[in-house]
Write a structure and sequence with these properties.
single chain; mainly alpha; 2 domains; 13 helices; 51% helix; rod-shaped
Length: 316
């Protein structure tokens, strides 16, 4: 039996699909080749057809222009500071407007606050100034009463630095002092005195002293404003205005005065009540009332002060 030989392999022709695959492969390779050579033909000379160099080139070539392209516009913004110049100008313009607004209220406030602070002590000093009368020495007996009434503007309208404590006082002047010291409400009817004109400067004071019950007129509707006031009338006027009444018989109270018999009968109760209230002032002899002697300005000041102390208006 003869040995059989293996069948010989015959080459089969390429199919249609295989041909297409080969064409696509070569086409792809060719496309890559032409893409590389088209990007940088100089690289083809030094590449020595080594594929690693071919693939490294496209990575380097795009990076170099990308880095250089942004580097070029960087200096271009340098001229841009030109528009920055108007910014400080716009900021500077409102700045001068702010100080006048803040400074303006501060200056008048400071001045207005200091003005009254300086005027108040001056006003206080002005009150103390007229108190120093050249004819009222420090040891004068009526000085405390005079200064107290001057400070309260009961004695006022001084033309010089003299008080004239020993000068007499008129009925019109007494009416003015009573009006200043009294806050009593008028309850009596006014009297139309024929010797007091309506336009007289003393008319309001006289009218007030009569309606408040301090002073009265004389017969025939006379007030006698220019008459010098005796001491008994000053005492009776203050006792009448304060509605003082004697607690005992007038004759008993008046026994303290050696000249008690000189007191008019119409004034006995008034003088007795004023004596009990401590309004009567006798200087330098307390046992001498001297009721009919003309009252001095110092004596009237002392008695008015005592009347105010009785009312609690001044220290006793």
């Amino acid at each position: 039996m003869s040995s059989s030989q293996p069948p010989s392999r015959e080459k089969k022709p390429l199919g249609f699909d295989e041909l297409i695959a080969i064409v696509v492969a070569f086409g792809t390779i060719g496309a890559i080749f032409f893409w590389v050579t088209g990007r940088n033909p100089d690289r083809l000379r030094t590449a020595n057809w080594q594929f690693p160099a071919v693939f490294s080139q496209p990575a380097v070539t795009p990076e170099s222009p990308r880095i250089l392209t942004p580097a070029a516009p960087i200096p271009s913004p340098s001229p841009s500071p030109a528009p920055v110049a108007p910014l400080p100008e716009e900021v500077v313009t409102p700045i001068p407007l702010v100080p006048p607004v803040s400074v303006a209220p501060k200056q008048p406030i400071g001045r207005s606050t200091q003005a009254p602070a300086t005027t108040k002590p001056k006003a206080t000093k002005a009150k103390v100034g007229p108190v120093k009368f050249s004819d009222v020495p420090d040891k004068y007996w009526a000085r405390p009463f005079i200064l107290a009434l001057v400070d309260r503007k009961i004695f006022a309208d001084f033309t010089d630095s003299k008080f004239r404590p020993d000068e007499p006082i008129t009925r019109a002047e007494l009416a003015r002092l009573i009006q200043r010291m009294s806050d009593k409400e008028p309850r009596r009817k006014p009297i139309d005195f024929k010797d007091v004109k309506d336009k007289s400067p003393a008319a309001p004071s006289i009218d007030n002293s009569v309606k408040t019950g301090y002073l009265k007129g004389y017969p025939n509707n006379e007030f006698r404003p220019d008459k010098q006031v005796p001491r008994v009338e000053v005492i009776a006027a203050l006792a009448s205005g304060l509605n003082l009444k004697p607690s005992t018989k007038a004759t008993k109270t008046l026994q303290v005065y050696k000249d008690r018999k000189k007191v008019p009968k119409w004034a006995l109760d008034k003088v007795a009540a004023a004596t009990e209230a401590g309004i009567v002032v006798n200087h330098p002899k307390r046992q001498l009332l001297q009721p009919n002697r003309t009252a001095t300005r110092a004596e009237v000041a002392a008695m008015i002060y005592q009347a105010m102390a009785k009312q609690g208006k001044v220290p006793a």
